[in-house]
Amino acid sequence: MLKNEIGTNAGRIWQYLEENGESNSKVLKKALKLTDAKLYMAIGWLYREGKVGLFEEGDEQVFFLIFE
C-alpha cells in the first residue's frame, strides 16, 4: 500500500470523526469501506501524529479526535 493511500484514508477517518464524533472500528470500517489493514494503518498514522485517541469498550476499540 502506498503512503499516499494511507494518508488519504487517515484524512477520511479524521473527517468522519469530526462530523460524527467518536466511533468504533466496526462502524468506521463499514462507513468508509476499509479493510482491517487499511483502517489500522490510517489510525496508526493519526495516532502517531497525536490526532486521535482510543479506548476499549468491550472487545472493540473506540476512536476519538484530540484537539490541541
How is this structure best described in words?
This protein is of the alpha+beta class and 68 residues long. It has a single domain, classed as Arc Repressor Mutant, subunit A. It is 57% helix and 21% strand. A 3-stranded antiparallel beta sheet has the order 1-3-2. A hairpin with a 2-residue loop joins strand 2 and strand 3. Helix 1 packs across helix 3. The radius of gyration is 11 Å and the shape is globular. The N and C termini lie far apart (30 Å). The model has no long low-confidence stretch (mean pLDDT 94).
Describe the structure in brief:
By secondary structure, the chain is α+β, with helices and mostly antiparallel strands. It contains three helices and three strands; from the N terminus they run H-E-H-H-E-E.
Shape: globular
CATH fold-level assignment: Arc Repressor Mutant, subunit A
- Give me the number of helical elements: 3
Which stretches are poorly predicted, pLDDT < 50 over at least 5 residues? none
CATH superfamily: Winged helix-like DNA-binding domain superfamily/Winged helix DNA-binding domain
CATH class designation: Mainly Alpha
The name of the CATH architecture is: Orthogonal Bundle
Nearest-integer average pLDDT: 94
Order of helices and strands: HEHHEE
Number of domains: 1
Task: Kindly name the structural category.
Answer: alpha+beta
Strand order of the biggest β-sheet: 1-3-2
Number of strands: 3
The percent range for helix content is 55-70%
Oligomer: single chain
Taking the alpha carbons of the first and last residues, their distance comes to: 30 Å
Largest sheet: 3 strands, antiparallel
Could you tell me the radius of gyration in angstroms?
11 Å
